[in-house]
Every structure is written in C-alpha cells, then in structure tokens.
Amino acid sequence: MPAETAATAPRPAAFPPLVSVVVPVRNEAPNIAPLVAEIEAALAAIPHEIVYVDDGSTDGTPAALREAAEGLPEEGGEPLRRLRHRKSCGQSAAIATGVRAARGEWIATLDGDGQNDPADIPRLLRRAQAEGDAVLVAGHRVTRRDTWVKRRTSLVANAVRARLLGDATPDTGCGLKVFPRALFLDLPRFDHMHRFLPALVLRAGGRVVSEPVNHRPRLRGRSNYGTLDRLAVSLFDVAGVAWLQRRASRPVLEPED
C-alpha cells in the first residue's frame, strides 16, 4: 500500500492494540509526517498505536506531531499519541516514557530519523510471537547507509561490547527492535540503556535473536549525536553493564509441597 493512502485505508480495531510503535524524537520536524505515513501503511492490517515521545525538541516537532495526529482516522481509538519531555532527557528516557505509556502487549521501537524502515516491523513482530515470551528481536542493519566514520566507530564499539558482554548481537545500535512490554518494564533503566537492551534482556533470563532489516540514508534533518562522543560514552557504559551482569541473580521458586 502506498504511504500516501495510509490515512484513508480501513483500520482494524485498534484497542487493545497488539503492538505499540514507540518513536523517540528530538528536533525531527521534517521527518514526522513521512514516517507516520509509513508506519500506518506497514501496520494497516495489525491493531496498533503509535507513541511519539518528543524529547524536549526546540524546532517545529510539536506542531508537526499535532498535524500528523489530526490527519489520521480516529476509528477504534487514538492512532497517534504524543508525549513530550519538558527538557531533553536522552533517547533511553524517551523510550522508557513511551513504553510505560504504551497499551500494546508488544513494543516496536523505531528511530525517528527515517533510517529504519517501518515495513520491517510486521516480520519482526511475527518472529517475536513465534519465539514466545521473554524474547527481544533485534534488527540487524546488514547494509548500513551511514558515513564511513560512523560505520567504523560502530564496528569498534560492537566488537568491544560483544567481547565484554557476550550479548551475541551483531548490531545493538539498530533502533528497530520488537519485545514484550512486560519484559522491558522489568529491566534496570539508566541513561544510554537502549544501546544495551540485548545484554540486559539476557541478564533478565530472556532470549535475543537478530533479524536482517533495511537501512536507509537520512534524507531530512541532522543527527543529534556526534560520532566520537557516542563512541566514548558507549565504551564507558559497557563497564557499567558488565558490572550489572556479574551481580545478576534470578531466583527460581520451587513448587509447593
């Protein structure tokens, strides 16, 4: 279905939604309308809601979200929900805000810059449902559409992280992931935690699988992250997550006599 027809397409009963698409954004005004249209087209046959979390944007993002919400049908519930942080608290905090507010059993996270392809969500959701509870399906950007410098720094960070954390995930930086809402709510939360979701899920006794996904170049706006500062933060946080792993304890209850 073409993206431009999504707003007029028949919607399945949306509530309770099967999946909540959580999109953290900061200063992504030109990407709002195109991405909302793509999400609606991709999930036209699946009961869903879209939860945008504006992490203290200073551009026209709030107005763009309002216009996008007004352009969607309201049958079956509220298709686009808008939450806003008064000031920027970071991507991990925005994801946590969205997951807490979500009403779906499953969560799909998606970067707001348009580089993740919403058309991949149904396939990842089917994989997650087939795998069962306590599973994280992580997108794997097999063909990255980023600069050479960003690809190389990500390669270094992924190699160090995999060696120290053993999370068996080739691309933890991909924003496209699907997991049960209840699983996320049991995880420890801290700044930059979204980069370590596979390790945290394994620590909690869950499973992690990866699926190849499409990756696209950024067409509008500019990144909120610098390459070198992101690498430095990621390497520093690895030590903290390794500390959490070493102190993990999962009690198993015995059946009553």
TrEMBL record:
TM annotation in the entry: none
Family annotation (InterPro entries): Glyco_trans_2-like, Glycosyltransferase_2, Nucleotide-diphossugar_trans
Gene3D superfamilies in the record: Spore Coat Polysaccharide Biosynthesis Protein SpsA, Chain A (3.90.550.10)
Name the UniProt record assigns to this protein: Glycosyltransferase family 2 protein
Domain Glycosyltransferase 2-like: 20-184
Assigned keywords, A-Z: Cell membrane, Glycosyltransferase, Lipopolysaccharide biosynthesis, Membrane, Transferase, Transmembrane, Transmembrane helix
